[in-house]
Amino acid sequence: MLNVLDNNLIILVILAVLLIADILLLVGVFQLKKKVKIFLKGKKVKDLEEVLSEHLKKIENIEKDIKDISKWNEKLQGICDISITKVGIVRFNPFKDTGGDQSFAIALLNSHNDGLVISSLFGREGTRVYSKPIEKGVSKYHLSGEEEESIKKAIGS
Questions:
Q1: End-to-end CA distance of the chain
Q2: What does pLDDT average to over the chain?
Q3: Alpha carbon distance 116, 140 (integer Å)
Q4: CB burial string 2-35: b at 16+ within 10 A, e below
Q5: Which H or E run includes 126?
Q6: Contact between 86 and 154 (Cβ < 8 Å)
Q7: In 59-102, where do the E strands start and end?
Q8: CA distance 10 to 3
């Protein structure tokens, strides 16, 4: 009789342990359901797999947009490299007999210091305009002091 009683007691202990484990598992399931419900809040989906699939599609679209923006940025950078981004101007009076600083030298350069310098000399008989190409901040033509100063101003801006 003791043997049957011992067996019943062992079975009862096992059932109690299983009952406690079951209760703990149910609590865990309810907590997980609550977290999933919070995660899916506002979504009209049935399961987590659908949400993940939706997010993967969004990530693919974002990656495509980033590639497009990167290509567009490269094109813009190419335009910026050849655009006039540096300007320097010097006004001066080349002749003592005329009044005011009516003459000027203006340097128009890109980001590589390539471009041109334009000089205008104002005199009584008329105005003369000169243009000289600039490569990497220097010209193969002789530059006046005012033209050199306008280039230095442009490079320094």
A1: 105
A2: 87
A3: 11
A4: eeeeeeeeeeeeeeeeeeeeeeeeeeeeeeeeee
A5: strand 126-134
A6: yes
A7: 86-92
A8: 11
Q: Which two tokens stand for residue 122?
A: 């104002």
d(CA 152, CA 12): 96
Residue found under tokens 């997010």: 55
Q: What DSSP character marks residue 101?
A: -
Distance, in Å, from the CA atom of 105 to the CA atom of 91, rounded to the nearest integer, reads 7
Cβ(106)–Cβ(99) below 8 Å: no
Q: What is the pLDDT of residues 39-76, one digit of tens each?
A: 777 666 667 777 788 889 999 999 999 999 999 999 99
Please tell me what DSSP assigns to residue 76.
H
CA distance to 32, 51, 123, per residue, from 35 (Å): 5, 14, 85
Ranking 14-28, 35-49, 113-127, 137-151 by mean pLDDT, the lowest is 35-49
| C-alpha to C-alpha distance for 137 and 155, rounded to whole angstroms | 8
Question: Measured between alpha carbons, how far is 139 from 101 in angstroms, rounded to an integer?
Answer: 25
